[in-house]
Amino acid sequence: MDNRPIGIFDSGLGGLTCVREVMNIMPNEDIIYFGDTGRVPYGTRSSSTIVKYVRQDINFLRSFDIKFIIIACGTASSAALPHITTEYDTDIIGVVDAASKRAAAETKNGIIGVLGTRGTVNSGKYAEKLKKLDPGFKVISTACPMFVPVVENGYADTKIAEMLAEEYLENIVKSGADTIILGCTHYPLLRKTIRKIVGSSVTLIDSGAAAADDAKSIMETRGLLTDKAEKGRAKYYVSDTVHGFEELGSLFLSKKIDGDVSKIDIEKY
Ligand code: DGL
Question: Are residues 87 and 105 in the same domain?
Answer without folding.
Answer: no
